[in-house]
Write a structure and sequence with these properties.
By secondary structure, this protein is an alpha+beta fold. Helix content is about 25%, strand content about 35%. The protein folds into two domains: about 130 residues, Chitinase A, domain 3 (Roll); about 120 residues, Chitinase A, domain 3. The protein is built from four helices and 17 strands.
Length: about 290
């Protein structure tokens, strides 16, 4: 009996030693992270949150305070202390959501919930910017990420540049997205009063003018602004009455091109029943 008790006590002691060892390792990581962050932020005006992260409001923004139920468009850039970028938002497909949901991210192939990101966004008004520093244990921890194309080392401290766009409406942010897209691709487009933008590459040689009542046969490619092809139709078999096409096509095609004509058309979301899109269009035939 005494032997069994001795064995039990020895086992319990081993468990307690292992627990305390793990606890010390965890605290050591915290201390190491904090020392690195303090060295990185020294003299730069960062504030340490009681939970352990650091932040700095570089531009508070303007207007009313934002509530979790307010829709916002935002930017983010995950990087290392040395500046290596791991994950960042696009400026041509700008993310938007309710402020209360701005803590949800997909990095690599996994989903993450980063409460400090939402908390720092909540300190900003529209147009505001901030920098957030997450200790490794509040970011991707011991495992890091090794999921191509993202490679984040074990115990990596993460620096985030965060921003909330000044624009509050979808049509307003579409203008920003399209402006960025046009600039990045060095395009020369004409802007219609409808806000559709277009370039007539070839006006065509057909004799029948396109009207809303015309039936046209056409080829087209539809892309998201990041260049991803959403759909494409070639072979001159797609046909429709112009009045049945999306609003942006109705605004631009009549009177501008005819059979044989080619154009590039960039539309905001409200003219394409969704998100902003980039089209290449070729008019094969026109029937009135």
């Amino acid at each position: 009996m005494r032997k069994n008790i001795t064995i039990y006590l020895a086992s319990l002691l081993s468990v307690l030693v292992l627990f305390n060892s793990c606890k010390k390792d965890y605290e050591t990581i915290q201390n190491i992270d904090d020392a690195k962050i303090q060295a990185f932020t020294a003299g730069k005006g960062f504030t340490k949150d009681p939970s352990g992260y650091y932040y700095k409001i570089t531009d508070p923004g303007n207007g009313a305070d934002l509530k979790n139920s307010d829709s916002v468009f935002y930017s983010y850039n995950f990087k290392s202390l040395s500046g290596t970028v791991f994950n960042q938002s696009s400026n041509v497909i700008i993310p938007g959501d309710y402020l209360g949901y701005t803590d949800r991210f997909v990095v690599g192939s996994a989903s993450y919930l980063f409460t400090p990101i939402r908390e720092v966004y909540s300190k900003l008004k529209r147009g505001g910017k901030a920098t957030l520093i997450l200790p490794s244990y509040m970011a991707f921890g011991k495992n890091g990420i090794n999921s191509s194309p993202v490679n984040i080392e074990s115990n990596e401290i993460i620096v985030l540049d965060l921003g909330i766009y000044a624009q509050a409406k979808k049509h307003e942010i579409n203008e920003v997205e399209i402006d960025n897209f046009v600039a990045a691709n060095k395009l020369t487009l004409t802007k219609d009063p409808s806000r559709a933008r277009y370039q007539i590459i070839t006006p065509g040689t057909g004799t029948d003018a396109i009207t809303l009542n015309s039936t046209i046969t056409f080829n087209y490619t539809r892309r998201f602004l990041d260049g991803t092809v959403a759909e494409s139709s070639t072979g001159g078999v797609t046909s429709s009455v112009v009045a049945d096409l999306i609003t942006g096509w109705q605004k631009i095609l009549p009177g501008r091109v005819t059979a044989g004509g080619k154009l590039r058309l960039v539309l905001p979301g409200d003219l394409v029943a969704g998100t902003a899109m980039d089209f290449d269009i070729e008019i094969v035939s026109v029937t009135n």
